[in-house]
Design a protein that fits this description.
Layout: H1 2-43, H2 69-98, H3 105-127, H4 132-157, H5 166-188, H6 210-236, H7 243-265, H8 270-291
């Protein structure tokens, strides 16, 4: 009887592991799509394309009498993708708890809770008519879901190492999160072009309008992230084992700065604005991956 149980454990563990890995990869890929779709909805002013939630005019599909069918479909496609992601993460959590010794189970359980909060944020975004604080929180939540999934992939598929310079990495990750929040605050307050013709957003060194102040704060945040995350990338590149992580952070950082400048100079063309949002997701993930290596 004991031998039979041992054989059963050995034969079922790989199946559980395979299911977990498959769900993890699918969820991670879909999470980035959801982040991109959310940005696309926001950038094309489709956040209120459906005036109710979770359906659209009381339907699961966009009805013929929708005021603007294009905006409504963009919003509903985002909701379908987000709902599918929630189901994947639920399945991922079940798979994590079923495979001994349950690596990542508590983290995936936390992800389930975060996805539930994200659903509430999605509802409040509509019912509260795109309140900036809710829109910004919804953006941050989506990026945290994506980043956490990337960290789980790193722990599942990456080499075992302890990382390095964890305190500096923590500061870099915190600075990047604050900067993403400032970027969401800029977008939700329509302040992206508040001072497109001025480096300092003012006649002097202090903005004269609320929108300009929001944009100026975002630019100051970019400078802080450049210094902190750039320093983290530099020290990582000094160690051969950590060099790829530092290089990826540096590339993501330079791309974000370049995209930010291009968005202002070219007056927020949709492809560049969307790329800037996805770039923020990649920067966060690259810092988190470097920071969260498994201790040997």
């Amino acid at each position: 009887m004991a031998a039979h149980v041992m054989v059963a454990d050995v034969t079922t563990a790989p199946a559980h592991s395979g299911a977990y890995r498959s769900l993890l990869l699918l969820a991670t890929a879909l999470a980035l799509c959801v982040v991109g779709l959310g940005a696309y909805v926001r950038l094309t002013d489709a956040g209120l394309g459906c005036p109710d939630w979770p359906g659209c005019y009381g339907h699961l599909l966009v009805p013929d009498h929708a005021v603007d069918a294009g905006r409504a479909w963009r919003e509903m496609i985002h909701r379908y993708a987000a709902g599918s992601l929630g189901l994947l993460i639920l399945g991922l959590t079940v798979a994590a708890w079923r495979r001994p010794p349950h690596p990542g189970a508590w983290l995936t359980s936390g992800l389930c809770a975060l996805v539930g909060l994200q659903a509430l944020m999605g509802m409040w975004t509509v019912t509260e008519l795109l309140q900036p604080v809710i829109v910004t929180a919804h953006l941050l939540g989506g990026l945290l879901v994506w980043t956490t999934l990337v960290v789980l992939c790193r722990r599942e598929f990456g080499a075992r190492d302890s990382g390095s310079w964890r305190r500096l990495g923590g500061f870099a990750l915190a600075a990047a999160l604050v900067q993403v929040g400032l970027g969401g605050w800029v977008a939700s307050n329509y302040a992206g072009l508040a001072c497109s013709d001025s480096l300092v957003c003012a006649d002097g060194w202090w903005p004269q309008t609320t929108a300009a102040a929001i944009q100026w704060a975002h630019r100051l945040g970019a400078a802080a992230v450049l210094m902190i995350a750039g320093s983290y990338a530099f020290v990582l590149m000094q160690k051969p084992a950590q060099r790829p992580f530092g290089l990826f952070i540096a590339i993501a950082l330079v791309m974000q700065i370049a995209l930010g400048i291009a968005n202002v100079v070219l007056r927020l063309p949709l492809p560049l604005a969307l790329a800037h949002n996805l770039g923020a997701a990649l920067l966060l993930a690259s810092i988190a991956v470097a920071l969260t290596g498994r201790r040997t």
